[in-house]
Amino acid sequence: MLDVIEQLLVLQDRDQKIMRLQEELSRIEPERNALLSKADNSKEALKKAKTEAQQVESNRKELELEVESKKKQINRYASQQLETKKNEEYQALSKEINTCKSDIEKLEDQELELMESYDLKLDAIKEAEKTAKEAQNRADEQVGELKVREANQKRDKQNFEEERTQLASKIDPSVLVRYDRLLKKKKSKVVVGINRGVCAGCHMALPTQIQVSCKAQSEIVNCSNCGRIVYFTRDMELNL
What strands, in cross-sheet order, belong to the sheet with 191-195? Predict the structure, then answer.
């Protein structure tokens, strides 16, 4: 194997590690946002539960005020009964009083239902508070783990990049340009072996001349199909 091919394979290994780390790092922020979003959703659920409870309590107080208003009406009608001397008016006032009493019964029944509903809402709030707290604790823990993982990946990536720079400085500039151009285009392995006459990159059969040139190991050879740099070692087989 040509020395330059060996150098490119080592360089390629570092580039693959750098690209893999870059890909992993690119997933950190979306993952962090997803975790925080879950915690925020739990907080919103808690907020909604509290709002619903407040609305139920507000409706109950409105009924309470309405009951008090009906009771005052009854007192007024009763006072008017004491003052009237006409039986028709007395009977009419009695009818109004009975209507108010009937309304009060209905309002009190509704108020009781709202009180029961409010108790259920309080239970829902407690459950939502528990869920929100657990979600926040879980998010804090996982975000912390992500932070550590991110720091480690950034450190590893920087180390590989520094090593990559040193490796690249030892490779013929003209060869490095060819390699970098291929890497930018393919974004995958660009220095690949051949076995049974097939390029390991594009998996297409290679012409006989390309195989012979690879076996000779006297120059850098490119795949006639995909353009990758191809090489041959003794443990590989040709299709000649």
Answer: 198-199, 191-195, 229-231, 221-222
Q: Is-above-0.85 flag for pTM?
A: no
Q: State how far the Cα of 40 lies from the Cα of 44, in Å rounded to an integer.
A: 6
Instruction: Output Rg (C-alpha) for the chain, integer angstroms.
Output: 41
Residues in the chain: 240
Is the sign of the CA dihedral 210, 211, 212, 216 positive or negative? positive
CB 59 within 8 A of CB 107: no
**Cα-to-chain-centroid distance, residue 53:** 30
CB neighbour list of residue 132: distance below 8 Å, 6 or more residues apart: 39, 42, 43, 45, 46
Contacts of 12 (CB under 8 A, 6+ apart): 179, 183, 189, 190, 191
Burial class (CB in 10 A: 0-12, 13-18, 19+), 125: middle
CA-nearest of 70, 47, 65, 53 to 114 is 53
- Lookup: tokens for 195: 């076995």
Tens-digit pLDDT profile for residues 105-126: 999 999 999 999 999 999 999 9
